[in-house]
Amino acid sequence: MSTVSEDAVASTRPQAMMRAEGVRKSFGATTVLDGIDLTVAQGEVLCIIGPSGSGKSTFLRCINHLEVVDGGRLWVGDSIVGYQQRGTRLYELSNAEICRRRARIGMVFQHFNLFPHMTVLENLMEAPVGVLKQPRAVVKERALELLGRVGLAEKRDAYPRSLSGGQQQRVAIARALCMEPDLMLFDEPTSALDPELVGDVLTTMRDLATSGMTMIVVTHEIGFARDVADRVAFFDGGRIVECGPPDEVLSHSQHERTRQFLAAVR
Questions:
Q1: pTM metric for this prediction
Q2: Which residues contact 211 (CB under 8 A, 6 or more apart)?
């Protein structure tokens, strides 16, 4: 009988793109994250749902080191977020190194945060040229390809103020992708949009998920989570109440608190 080594089996498992172990975060006396344990594999789409104040957005900001955790550890790839380990001790990274590592993580916020004095194309090119020091011609070609991908090639020379909210959010997604990130974080990207503008943004995100991008999406769009996510995590009170395949969490919830939330948002 042939046997397969443990190393061979391990090599077939998807690599962890993000790993959280015992992550805690408080603001004053308020505990916002209370021991989050979560792993997201390379190429996986995880949707995080839950009530306002449950810690969803704070967790994303910790992954990107926009917030510093109070306890536990976070990894993106093989790197500890915000720190370097030497022996048994952790040392905080310099601001320059934090920014360099953060460039691997794309983040799309509720509000678009585009530079109003720059055209759409200039918004996409700014960080790859200015931060990553990539050749302008190479970045421009990539930026134009991405604008075509999100259906906004004809808006390359427009300014953000002339775009609808949905168009601005699609530009924000293309801008994040222009940095060629390993991981994309979305913090309720449709919550600031009028209902009729939501569809185009969700279509762009669906296409991105299909391409194999690793994505962590905080969303109230339950239909999107059901259709696109590999797993759904329900947060409440700074904890993960349950996490599993969409059908399991959204249609056959094991916890009464999850069922209450879903009944309220449907």
A1: 0.91
A2: none
